[in-house]
Amino acid sequence: MTAAEYDYDIKTMYKGNPKGRKLIGRGVADFCGTEVLDPNTIYLIYAKTDDEGDFLRIVSYKEITDVTYEDIERMKKYYDCSCKISINNFVLPGAPRRPSSGLSDPPLNGCEVPFNYCRRSAYCKNIEGKCTWGNHGECN
């Protein structure tokens, strides 16, 4: 898989600190679709550090013209880096569907993505000592 490396200027930091790390995307080789940022375009980017903490890896991004107030509010108030999100492959688009009797209880420090999750509005946040799945904003 070929990664794409980006230079970036931060206009507004909603959470975290990039600490001069390089921003890495999956480029054209991503099996979920091309992940290429256009030069001189403003994006809202959700990124996480790699396991070693050397890079910021793009998790998702959206052109700023497609960003709503709820998107920014969700990023500032509801994204919680202390919670681990577990993905059951059966909830992913294109995966075979199966009836679900619900997911097992996740650990206190994590959330499992529910079968009918909304990619745009979903979040996992530590509320009263337990990571909890929720939605904020429009689902589309």
UniProtKB/TrEMBL annotation:
<protein>
    <recommendedName>
        <fullName>NTR domain-containing protein</fullName>
    </recommendedName>
</protein>
<dbReference type="InterPro" id="IPR008993">
    <property type="entry name" value="TIMP-like_OB-fold"/>
</dbReference>
